[in-house]
Specification:
Layout lengths: L10 H18 L32 H5 L22 E6 L4 H13 L4 E5 L2 H4 L23 H7 L9 E5 L4 H15 L7 E4 L4 H7 L6 H18 L3 E2 L1 E4 L1 H5 L4 H21 L11 E7 L3 H22 L12 E5 L11 H15 L4 E3 L12 H17 L13 H23 L3 H6 L2 H18 L27 H16 L2 H15 L6 H9 L4 H12 L9
Parallel strand pairs: 1-2, 1-9, 2-3, 3-4, 4-5, 6-7, 7-8, 8-9
Helix pairs in contact: 3-5, 6-19, 10-11, 10-14, 11-12, 11-14, 12-13, 18-19, 18-20
Length: 562
């Protein structure tokens, strides 16, 4: 690949080299969706537009931009972007039992979804089986209940895991869910080097913004780096972490804070892995990110461009040996749940469309579009299909996929990109001064920044200085009823009964032996993933496996921030 910062060649020469090495090479390999992209009057579009196409002399402009697919990746992580292939349309779904969620996945795949994204219920996220006392009333409510390998097998029944990419939004119990997924694949006869997907596995943001943590930070970082090392050797195509700014933004941060705190977490994970003995190029290429998409259309586009550039620059500064291909910030995005309103919920379709378009123009690698009814409850099948169709209309009908980084050169977008990068870097440096992310979390500093920003935003909504259609402006006197998805409470009883039956039917001595081995290993330095996999094969439950480690690691207690 040509060096995007090589000042010894003219811009024209660099463009020709980029096209020959990247774009034309991709076309020859059949990686473009069609041979020619046309405007509505039949005019061919160029692969990449440059300052000269707008009559601008801008040799120096390229020093900050580079070419798509080249450092610092401002213009995208792939040379062809969506001219090569569309982003992955990955609708987040899961509710009730594994069988119910399996039906929803098959519906979405039949409707054209190109990747699965699994939502787990709170007990699963917190390391509790469905028959645990603390799980009462929460089983299957905000996601699917998964207690065992039997549940995981049912969840993916009839879905060939060598042909679909699966994202699992799971954090504290991520190693366990990954082990469950691996064993299901093995029982399907799928080779592990064929498995593609992502586990979120980002516990730092749980301490910051969300709260589904189990173990103290040091133990959580050990489990995360164990996953990095394990996947390097056993699941080479798996994305080992999805470093999440989504929940940071949902908690009330602004765009700058979302970028800063997310990238600071990412740098902490790199440091932890390197300190654990991993070579950076052995794992950095499998790091992925997850961002929120809010209503501020141009700011959101700039946010994604700034995040890519800042990540590439900061990792290179701290780890010069990191290869360029491993400096790419690849990200999944989701439209903003916190922007959805229960009032006039049909308006949410417009909000989601604006946000989805910002994600696409910002260069997302995969996208979930929220359903219009999510401020009221879990999405109905009709609402979920509309959300998916929103992505499909953008891809097939808007024409934006025909252009690579089409908003580059916009005075507004470029100014916002520079500003977000500069301010986010300053926040990351402040975190460094505080001793790093873990120390900043323990001191409550990051949480306070988010709380202050969230409070100011809510004041603006309450005073109507920030307008929200249907809430404080254009309010309707009455609204039609919206169908709400309801979870049958009988599902919780049935799920608990299945889990108890599994324990009764398995080889109890073998299961306990595997759990004892895991507890002993947790007290040492071995990679814990092989022990967790053996527990899964022995039909140990998620709650038992989590408890075996908790017996050694203990539980995290949150710092109260006032």
């Amino acid at each position: 690949m040509p060096d995007g910062t090589d000042s010894d060649r003219s811009l024209e020469e660099r463009y020709d080299a980029w096209r020959e090495d990247s774009y034309d090479a991709a076309a020859e390999r059949g990686f473009l969706r069609k041979e020619e992209f046309l405007t509505s009057d039949g005019e061919p579009t160029k692969p990449l537009y440059m300052p000269a196409d707008a009559g601008v002399e801008a040799e120096s402009y390229m020093e900050d931009q580079g070419f798509p697919g080249e450092f610092p990746f401002t213009r995208g992580v792939q040379a062809t972007m969506f001219r090569g292939r569309p982003w992955t349309m990955r609708q987040y779904a899961g509710f009730g039992t594994a069988a119910e969620s399996n039906e929803r996945y098959k519906m979405l795949l039949k409707a054209g979804q190109t990747g699965l994204s699994v939502a787990f219920d709170l007990p699963t996220q917190m390391g509790l089986d469905s028959d645990a006392g603390l799980a009462a009333g929460e089983v299957g409510k905000v996601g699917v209940a998964i207690d065992s390998i039997e549940d995981m097998s049912t969840l993916f029944d009839g879905i060939p895991l060598d042909q679909v990419s699966t994202s699992m939004t799971i954090n504290a119990t991520a190693p366990i869910l990954l082990a469950l997924y691996q064993v299901v694949a093995e029982e399907q006869g799928v080779s592990l080097d064929q498995l593609r997907g992502t586990i979120q596995n980002d516990v730092l943001k749980e301490y910051i913004a969300r709260g589904t943590y189990i173990y103290p930070a040091d133990a959580s970082l050990r489990l995360i780096t164990d996953v990095f090392a394990y996947c390097k050797d056993h699941l080479p195509r798996w994305n080992t972490i999805s470093i999440s700014g989504y929940h940071i933004r949902e908690a009330g941060s602004d765009a700058v804070q979302e970028v800063a705190f997310t990238l600071a977490n990412g740098l902490a994970y790199i440091d932890a892995a390197v300190n654990a003995g991993l070579e950076i190029n052995a794992f950095a290429g499998r790091l992925a990110f997850f961002f929120n998409v809010q209503n501020g259309f141009l700011e959101e586009v700039a946010k994604f461009r700034a995040a890519r550039r800042l990540w590439a620059r900061m990792v290179r500064e701290r780890y010069p040996e990191c290869e360029d291909r491993n400096l790419r910030l690849r990200f999944h995005s989701q439209t903003a749940g916190c922007s959805l309103t229960a009032q006039q919920p049909d308006n949410n379709v417009a909000r989601v469309t604006i946000q989805a378009l910002a994600a696409v123009l910002g260069g997302t690698q995969s996208l979930h579009t929220n359903s219009l009814d999510e401020a009221l409850g879990l999405p109905t099948e009709r609402a979920a299909r509309i959300a998916l169709r929103t992505q499909q209309v953008i891809n097939s009908e808007s024409g934006v996929s025909d252009f690579i980084d089409p908003l580059a050169g916009s005075y507004v977008v470029e100014s916002l990109t520079d500003s977000i990068e500069e301010k986010a870097r300053a926040l990351i440096e402040k975190i460094d001064d505080l001793g790093g992310v873990v120390r900043a979390i323990e001191a409550g500093w990051i949480q306070r920044q988010i709380m202050d920003t969230s409070y100011r935003f809510q004041q603006g909504v309450d005073s109507a200085d920030i307008e929200v259609v249907g809430v404080n402006v254009h309010v309707a006197e009455s609204e039609p009823k919206t169908e709400i998805q309801k979870i049958d409470p009988a599902g919780e009883r049935d799920q608990a009964a299945r889990t108890k039956a599994l324990r009764a039917a398995r080889d109890g001595q073998a299961a306990q032996a595997r759990l004892d081995e895991l507890t002993k290993a947790a007290g040492g330095t071995d990679n814990l993933m092989p022990y967790i996999v053996r527990c899964v094969r022995a039909r140990c439950t998620l709650g038992e496996i989590s408890g075996a480690m908790k017996a050694v690691f203990g539980a995290y207690r949150e710092t109260i921030v006032v």
